[in-house]
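thought: fold this chain, then report.
action: predict
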Amino acid sequence: MGSYRCQCVSGYNRTAGTVCQDIDECGFNQHDCTQVENYCVNTAGSYTCECSSGYYNTGSICEDIDECELNQHDCNQVANYCVNTAGSYICECSSGYYNSGSLCQDIDECELNQHDCNQVENYCVNTAGSYTCECSSGYYITGSLCEDIDECELNRHDCNQVENYCVNTAGSYICECSSGYYNTGSLCQDIDECESNTICDIPNTVCANTIGSYDCSCTTDYSWDGEQCTANPYRRDGRCRHDFIAPNGQEAICDKTGPYPCCSDAAWCGSSYLHCLCSGCVDYRTK
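observation:
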């Protein structure tokens, strides 16, 4: 007698009896899916390769989706930026930030001394992801450099220019004591040059202290002749004058009632200078 046998079609295996069971090619790794760009999906009697997450089907192959280019990412583009990877992307920390494990933290270049500010003309100011060099007090920016401000030249100081004067320094200024003054610690005090008894070293002079200096003048009965102090004349060749001061400090006045009466002021007294005996009119040549 004739007979027959049922064969399972491709993609199925015969089980006990006459049942054909689907072969799970994916489970048995009987497929050609790469498992990277695509993955295996079992179907009745066969399988398909589906594009993995992060890939798209071009028709014949699965191409990587560039999430960075398509802006399909959650990187904030400030503290971090998008880097495309096979089938996905990662957020890398931007320059000036470091990875703390869960997020990108700003690097404080100023605190870590990772900057090129010289800390004299300028100082470091931390910013988001970077830093700036700001001009220090006493300096101004000229484009790329911080230049010293000359407070003295610009009259931006509190020196009074009498007891003290302004001296510019790097980034500031100081008030130096003027000549004739000394520094007490808090202010400039006038030097009393006259306390030194030798400051006026010409005979017959007296010292008078002035603000920031001193004067040497001839003592009473003496006058400066251009080189030294000489005794004041009280009579010149027999003449008595009001501007010739007598030793007692009074003007020389001729006594017309005396034994040797004198003429009017500036006139001759007697026949010669020996005859002028008015009170206080002293022969300068005998001084």
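thought: worth noting. Residues 141 and 147 are 6 Å apart (CA to CA).
final: tokens above.
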